[in-house]
Amino acid sequence: MNKKQKITRSQYEYISSKLETKNILLKHIFDISCLLARSPDLGEVLEHIVDGVMTGLNFDRAAILLLDDSETRLDCLCIKGFSEDGKKRAQEKPIVISKHDCYEKKVIKSGESLFIKDMRSDPSATKIDKIITKYQERRSVLYMPLKLKNRVFGMIGVDRYRTHMEITQDDIESLSIFANQASIIIENARFNKALYEEKFISENIIKSSFNGIIVSDIKGNIKRLNARAEEILGLNNEDLMHTSLRDLFDLGEDEKKGIVGIWKKKEAIRNLELYYNGKDEKRLIIDVNVFPLIGINNNIQDLVTVISDITEKKKMDDYMARLDKFVALGRIASSIAHEIRNPLASIYALIQYLEAELHGNTFHKSCFHNIRNEIDRIEKLIRQVLDLSRSLPLEVRKTNIQDLLLSIVALVTQQANQKEIAIKTVFENSDVILDIDPDRMKQVFLNLIINAIESIKERGEILISTKLASDEHGFENGISIEVRDNGIGIPCSVIGNIFDPFFTTKNMGTGLGLTVSHKIILDHGGSIEVVSIENEGTTFYVRLPITDKVSSNK
After folding, report:
1. CATH classification number, 314-388, choose in 2.60.40, 3.50.30, 1.10.287, 1.20.5
2. Is pTM beyond 0.70 here?
3. pLDDT (tens digit per residue) in 271-295
4. Strand-strand pairing, 397-400 and 432-436
5. Among 183, 231, 375, 551, which residue has the least CB neighbours within 10 Å?
6. What CATH number labels 210-309?
């Protein structure tokens, strides 16, 4: 039978001391490990680690130095136990790896701990080491690298400056164990800090973006949007929760299939122009780009939709395109008008001669009369084209716009009654005086109202209204006249061409009515816009500057 070995009192005290040290070490490792669950910022993490080193491992002074993002500089980010001057020097004078040859650099390069028992007599001390030792009053110092997966990213430096207690091998082992766990926690905090900063930057970019940004799930259900998207759409996050992208815009079947197909093919939709009914029934043209947000596992997590209001840009593009067409038409008209008019004059004279020669032949006279009428139509068409290509002087008079519109309504009432169409008028201001050519402007509104009548099959309604135009339309003092019908509407495929010369969807007509109207409005310093929904109706907006506004009588 083996005899039990007796443990001496000194051995018992030594073992008990070591166990107590290990328990304290484990307690402080547990304390700093709890930080992983809370995700505090890096500064708080470093404070806890330095406190754990000093209280748990009985060091008087401690400092944590971390490499910067470029790994070219070692910054002191947390330091305790030093004098105020020592702290200031350590934090204001980083160690540049390529420039400063010192103990700290050796630890970073080797990835191994470094213990200097007496710095004052250490033969390996460099000039930089001696300068730091002088100002920090270093004697016996221990440096422990902070590393993860063999990548060194910093270090912990400790000493016992006040107690002068010896740094033992047990102390070195304890700090090594503590540093291993501290490395995990510091890297986690740095990762969280990088994520937070990236998220902060991303959110700021999204918030300050000139474009609207909408985040939705893969089915198109909206989850969130930025302030610019709220502004463009005239809605807020709460209004749009659980709304689908497919319901938000006027989408055709192809567009709907395209959005649904993004999550299947992982392909983006770019520069899709869609109509959107904004605030105050204002119809906007929205440029839409939709692309998938790919997650870690290469799965689509969400859809990101970037929108921008291109209504004004499209209006300007259309306006410039129309001007270009007027210029081109002017060149053609001026060059060929006389080539057409000269033979027409000869034909007209010959018809008059033949008509005078054929006495008593009623049939021939009727034919010649019809020919003369057709020649007159050609002459009128040439005049209209020439008028489009040049600016004609306006016979401007002060005109009450309400009286002008009511006189036009009186002219077309019988035609409207034949189709059981009601014409209603709503005038915001009854006495608005404009400096316009009343005959030319009557031509404009007569054309618009007749077009509205013709677009309604039967039993419809036409609304003619006026209201003051706001600054957003480019008028400091202007009026907007709207002609709205509930007719067949204008197809999206042709609405961009309705002001083009000779473009028409009617069986009869020259296709110059809206072109001439547009030119007359431009000559008056105004603008004309159209909004139409197929099978629902069309609205023309004519905006003109006001020169004299009399008090309103409502």
Report:
1. 1.10.287
2. no
3. 888 878 776 667 788 888 888 877 7
4. antiparallel
5. 551
6. 3.30.450.20
